[in-house]
Amino acid sequence: MKHNFGAGPGILPHEVLKQAAAAVVDFNGIGLSLLEISHRSAEFEAVLDEAVKLVKELLEVPEGYSVLFLQGGASTQFAMVPYNLLPSTGKAAYVESGVWANKALKEAKFFGEVEVIATSKEANFTYIPKDYTVPTDAAYLHLTSNNTIYGTQLHQFPASPIPVVCDMSSDIFSRKINVADFGIIYAGAQKNMGPAGTTLIIVKDEILGKVDRKIPAMLNYQVQIEGGSMYNTPPVFAIYVSMLTLNWLKSKGGVEAIAKENKAKSHVLYEEIDRNPLFKAVCAVEDRSDMNVCFVMENPELEKPFLKLCDEKGIIGIKGHRSVGGFRASIYNALPITSIYVLIDAMQEFAEKNK
What we know:
Helices cover 35% and strands 17% of the residues. A hairpin with a 4-residue loop joins strand 6 and strand 7. By secondary structure, it is an alpha/beta fold. The chain is built from 9 helices and 14 strands. The strands form 4 sheets. It has a 7-stranded mixed sheet with strand order 2-10-9-8-5-3-4, sandwiched between helices. It has a 3-stranded antiparallel sheet with strand order 11-12-14, covered by helices on one side. The protein has a two-stranded parallel sheet with strand order 1-13.
């Protein structure tokens, strides 16, 4: 058995994979593959409608918001957000909490002034910046809720006098959020929602249409809303698997129930890291992520032997990002707590052998 701690594309529920595999051959008994039916067919429109409905239900999306399933990943949203929201003579406020936040603010600079109001770059992003003032004259505030590379997470969102835009790619659907606190939420699917290929966007309708530039149709939120996520051929398979995953989440009791599971998983793993003399966590305790647990060896020479032991035990994707080193256990929604205990057992066994 494999225990998938990969950072992304991440683990998906086994039952979802079985359903998706069957649909590739014969979708709902219609005699055609999901991959070859028209995106304008009644069969796929029902899939898209169900996916949107589940997003609204699971996240309790209020009236006045539109839900989109687009392409291009969160990286396209780095440009799409300022294209639609940042006036050429205006400015946007960004909190730089990691690599992806840095990439987002670099893209925004093509469209207007960017003010980095807080950063943790000087500490290699080992904490979430706090105690900053949000400028009232900015078009929006951009945040990144979870930092996969560094293992930090924003556990409390700041009160903001301006619309908040948040990249939630790596922790969407992992915990309860108040959608009404945000102007735009965007998230690549490939952590907690589905396979790579589609991106979820939840946008407050009233914040659109306030820039004077011309926006290409594919990058225009209003055009995509009017087209119902089908201005062009949508990523049919990725949306279908996302719909299945959201149904799976609903069957487990929804976001509130999965949040308790995620807390339990991260708690026991951090407890072992703090207890085990061979390992140590790398980021501020109050900012530790429940999705990506990053840790290193006290003795770096033991890293390769530990990775070898993990491989023998079917523990996959545990190696840390090159900019941090060490190890990264990504514990997304579909990873069972039994896999956490397999990793903990490996850590304890390795510590016994290397006293």
